[in-house]
Amino acid sequence: QVQLIESGGGLVQAGGSLRLSCATSGRALNMYAVGWFRQAPGKERVFVAAISWRGGNSAYADSVKDRVTISRDNAKNTVYLQMNSLKPEDTAVYYCAADLLGTLEHIRTGDGMDYWGKGTLVTVSS
């Protein structure tokens, strides 16, 4: 069993930065592709970024691709989401999800993920 625990959210002013972490307890994360998603108030959950299980490939939503970097440290069973130049429209609950040996294309859909975290709230003030 893999439990995903997100952290690093908080309140930040527009233009600021945050680094979110997705850590596991239990089984190691190294065989899982991991994605980040976000859900703004009153809206559906959407894809933000994903990283392959080996860490060599990544994918980003168009809305964030110039401001966000996803990375992973398999030795620490942690995936990171560095977010820069934050905007008020980035305000959302951010979730990570793990997909065993998943592809980036599959992670983008958010369907059939093996595990989800409970989310961390990011609030960007104007």
What does this structure look like?
The structure is a single chain. With 126 residues, the protein is mainly beta. Helix content is 5%, strand content 52%. It is built from one helix and eleven strands. The protein has one helix spanning 104-109, and strands at residues 2-7, 10-13, 18-26, 32-39, 45-51, 58-60, 68-73, 78-83, 92-100, 115-116, 120-125. Strands 2, 4, 5, 6, 9, 10 and 11 form a seven-stranded mixed sheet that branches. β7 and β8 (78-83) form a beta hairpin. The termini are far apart.
**H/I helix tally:** 1
From the spread of the alpha carbons, the general shape counts as globular
Number of strands: 11
Strand content: over 45%
Low-confidence stretches: none
Main β-sheet description: 7 strands, mixed
The rounded distance between the terminal residues' Cα atoms is: 40 Å
Helices and strands in order:
Elements: E1 2-7, E2 10-13, E3 18-26, E4 32-39, E5 45-51, E6 58-60, E7 68-73, E8 78-83, E9 92-100, H1 104-109, E10 115-116, E11 120-125
Parallel strand pairs: 2-11
Antiparallel strand pairs: 1-3, 3-8, 4-5, 4-9, 5-6, 7-8, 9-10, 9-11
In brief, what are we looking at here?
This protein has one helix at residues 104-109; strands at 2-7, 10-13, 18-26, 32-39, 45-51, 58-60, 68-73, 78-83, 92-100, 115-116, 120-125. With 126 residues, it is mainly beta. The model has no long low-confidence stretch (mean pLDDT 95).
